[in-house]
Amino acid sequence: MIRYQTLAEQTGQLIESGVLRPGERLPSVRQACRIHDVSPVTVTQAYALLESRGLVEARPRSGYFVCARRVQRLPEPAMSRPQPDFTELQVSDFIFQILDSVKDPAVVPLGSSFPAPELFPLDRLGRCLAHAARHLDPRATITDLPPGNEELRRQLALRYLGHGAQVSPREIVITSGAMEGLNLCLQAVTRPGDLIAVESPTFYAGLQAAERRGLRVAEIPSHPREGVSIEALAELLRHHRVSACLFMLNFANPTGARMPDARRRELVALLTRHQVPLIEDDVYAELYFGDTAPLCSKAVDPAGIVMHVSSFSKCLAPGYRIGWVAAGRYADAVLRQKLASSIATTVPVQIALADYLKQGGFDKHLRGLRQRLAAQEAALVAAVEAHFPDGTRLARPDGGYFLWLELPPQVDALRLHQAALAAGISLAPGPIFSALREFGHCIRLNFGHPDPARQLAAVETLGKLVAAQL
């Protein structure tokens, strides 16, 4: 191999493994000459080769930088086409069977719904929590009853303001994680037997919440990059009474889809005309790659029909179980449901998170977290492209920590799940993301765990298991 090709391969491996992360600057030509004991011509040729492969980009008068996105070699899945049935749900037993597999630490957690704990500032959060517990004002057991700690709600309102949305602390209800928030929203605006709309595929926790409420669901076609079909939703609203829409518009679980800003405005306007509340499960919004945050739905919601649900579990404090609902016109109804169900959310944890946000540093943590996830995504994509067979399709996200794969139609995702478990690997099979048990040849993989050698070996094994079913 020629010298410049060897240097290009070595640098490419650093990029694929995440040592060099998207947006980071490569050593200058002079630095690279000194490091590798090569000529400037060799370095220039190596960088030009990496640029031709879509791994780096040259910026005038600045040098070479790792590309934020590589050119994708696998095609993306097409728009989903769910069966036009309204479904009474029976999904929980099936989902619990699958989820048990991710609890074993010996299993490679590609099927997990959570990022790795080591990505978060848990030591600093622990100090905030210890301080809050030691200095807890006994009156807080009364004053921090729902809607929740006043300073935490104020800090959340400030973050909304930073995203262009004017949200009053009075409409924010603190919850025990986003899951409780989703349940409270459904309880506030639906009755058993009502029809709600969800994406197809959709996050199974939303299906479980709808099942507990005794709701029927209509699955709406969804594109793996742009999200739910507004045209299909409009057709449903013309012919049926829909009590609520339960959507993920930012880096949807499982596909990673992010609805473009213009389409988001169109969606909120459509639901406003029909007076249908949008319950937005938005726990991944802070995990965008690149420099531009997604448009906040509350910023384009003058009528208050958006019930914005989020939490700190995916971006800051897993296990602390602090979420919230910015419920708009439905805030009083959500508050009543909270008081009638769990009464309050743990007071010291609310105080600790309020203190952490007030101290600053959250945005710095988020910038580092986004860079790490973007690098881990690039590494997992490269591994899938290298080891999965022809006929595989890949939905590549620009945020979150999930990859959605559509495998060749002969592959049975449930059989693959069992074979992978026997090999010490978990994955999330497609049927758990559909009330109709569709997506039988699709899987979701998690790139939120920074153990590249272990994950890449697992992907190679998965590729062989997929090939064995062809």
UniProtKB/TrEMBL annotation:
SMART domains reported for this sequence: HTH_GNTR
Q: Which family does it belong to?
A: In the C-terminal section; belongs to the class-I pyridoxal-phosphate-dependent aminotransferase family.
Pfam families this protein is in?
Aminotran_1_2, GntR
Q: Which UniProt keywords apply?
A: DNA-binding, Pyridoxal phosphate, Transcription, Transcription regulation
Query: Domain HTH gntR-type, which positions?
Result: 1-69
Instruction: Tell me the protein's name.
Output: HTH gntR-type domain-containing protein
Q: Which InterPro entries match?
A: Aminotransferase_I/II_large, HTH_trans_reg/aminotransferase, PyrdxlP-dep_Trfase, PyrdxlP-dep_Trfase_major, PyrdxlP-dep_Trfase_small, Tscrpt_reg_HTH_GntR, WH-like_DNA-bd_sf, WH_DNA-bd_sf
Superkingdom to which the source organism belongs: Bacteria
- Segments spanning the bilayer are none
Which Gene3D superfamilies does its entry note?
A: Aspartate Aminotransferase, domain 1, Type I PLP-dependent aspartate aminotransferase-like (Major domain), Winged helix-like DNA-binding domain superfamily/Winged helix DNA-binding domain
For this protein's source organism, the top of the classification is: Bacteria, Pseudomonadati, Pseudomonadota, Betaproteobacteria, Rhodocyclales
Which PANTHER family would you find in this protein's record? HTH-TYPE TRANSCRIPTIONAL REGULATORY PROTEIN GABR, TRANSCRIPTIONAL REGULATORY PROTEIN
